[in-house]
Amino acid sequence: MKTPTIPTLLGPDGMTSLREYAG
To answer: What segment(s) does the record annotate as region Disordered (predicted)?
Structure first.
């Protein structure tokens, strides 16, 4: 399990990961 705490640092990939994790 991955928990993207700083999506901004990861960039677009982080945002997508956060969206998938949230959704």
So the answer is: 1-23
- How far CA 9 is from CA of 1, 22, in Å, comes to 19, 18
d(CA 23, CA 6): 17
4 touches 12 (CB < 8 A): no
Between the CA atoms of 11, 12, 14 and 15, what dihedral angle is there, to the nearest 10 degrees? Answer: 120
Distance CA 23, CA 9 (A): 20
Question: Taking the complete model, does pTM exceed 0.70, yes or no?
Answer: no
